Amino acid sequence: MDNIERVIKKMDPVYIRYLLHASLGLTCFLYPFLPIGILALIMFLMLVVLRRSSQRSKLYEILSSNENVDQKKTFDKGVRSANNIVFAILLLLLFNYAFRLEGVTFPLYVIGGAVAISTFGSASANLFRYWKRAQLKCLARLDYPEKKYKGEDNDMFNLSSSLVMLIIGIISAFLVGAWIIHWKEIAVSYDMIFFIAVIGSVTGALFKSIPSRVDDNISILFGSCMVMWLFASFGYTVPPGHMFFALLFSLLLGYLAYRARIADISALLGASIVGVLIIVFADIFWFLLLLTFFILGGGFTKYKYAYKASIGIAESKGGVRSYENVFSNSMAALVLAVAYGIYPQHSELIMYSYLGTVATATGDTLASEIGTTSKEKPRMITNFKPAKPGRDGAVTILGELACIFGSLVIAVLAILFGRVENIPLALLVTTLGGFIGTNIDSLLGATLQNRGILTNSGVNFYATFVGAAVSGLLFLLLG
């Protein structure tokens, strides 16, 4: 025991803190063998011990063994991190018990997978990031050109650590989930365990990439757990090979968007979640169609960017999109893709609704990015009075034409890929859905957004659902 303690004392306290964080995930392997009440009691006792930890404790001596670091700060961070993760696990176990009393299924393998992601996955990402930064600081002190390391892009650390978290999260969540269903003899396929492990890990990595006042030990655990629970409840799964392809394809395209400075890391991970789910519930064409929106949107954001910046209406951060933009414009598409997989008997209706929502997102983005460069005076959609360029709810003829063009592109792609049989109907339904949805976006911008009731993301969210509803209704009426 003394030898182990001496080894630990020689280690960097930050490494020790992250390793202790990861070790909390080992509790998952007790899940198949102990009642929920006993598991909750263990978590509660761990919480009490952590709460009562002080600088006189043995834990403090181990965590603060390096004199070159702020000992108290390292200790406090380690205890706070462990305290939050244990508290979050305790809550999930209590939820499991309470839901079971009400006859609601909250699978233990979902909780175990989420705990694995938030401990093994998150700690691995933290360890990698800390090690990489320490390595570069060391190299910068040697004879290497200083400019090679000075101002190193912080995003690259976050991107690399996100990938580490994704890989370790998927592996650990799958192993823990498989362990639980094996020993508890739960009738769930390993395909399902891998399916939710991928979804949960990408979700966890996304939450870790988003700055928040909420401790990421809590947000990652609850976020990944709720998403895994949602998709486990559908009972829908695909072979691991299909899931793996969907993940790699989505990540690759997201990475290309990131390198092209169209998306930041949160958008990369957000688009990966959307891409994986759309591909596995529908097919790759559905994702390519949505990808067309992101490509056109990102491309036309750069259109006359200097001019738009000079009059104060250009997208912030050089037009780089974040997770908010991804989800506000693609949530309706995601819902419809999931519905397509679950309700195949309504596939044609859902397809036309999907065309309408993507047409709305595309048309709205092109109308905004191209319309603001028009030489004519914009007019408010509510009363047609002249307005300043870029004002929410202001429209131009050029913008309306750009909207129609964007909607037509979506319709034509659906026709070229052979996804619709009635070509005139597809052109009409998609274009009208996109046009009406885009103008609803302008109407919401002129009213609710200008009053501060909705943000731009909120307006996009509702408008894309309206575009889907319009196209769906038109299909029912005219199809």
UniProtKB/TrEMBL annotation:
Signal sequence, renumbered to the chain: none
Transmembrane portions of the chain: 29-50, 82-100, 106-128, 157-181, 187-207, 219-236, 242-258, 265-296, 394-417, 423-447, 459-478
Keyword Transmembrane annotated: yes
Location in or out of the cell: Membrane
Annotated keywords: Membrane, Transmembrane, Transmembrane helix
A Gene Ontology cellular-component term: membrane
Bilayer topology: Multi-pass membrane protein
UniProt cross-references to PANTHER family, sorted A to Z: TRANSMEMBRANE PROTEIN 19
Family indicated by similarity: Belongs to the TMEM19 family.
Name the record gives this protein: TIGR00297 family protein
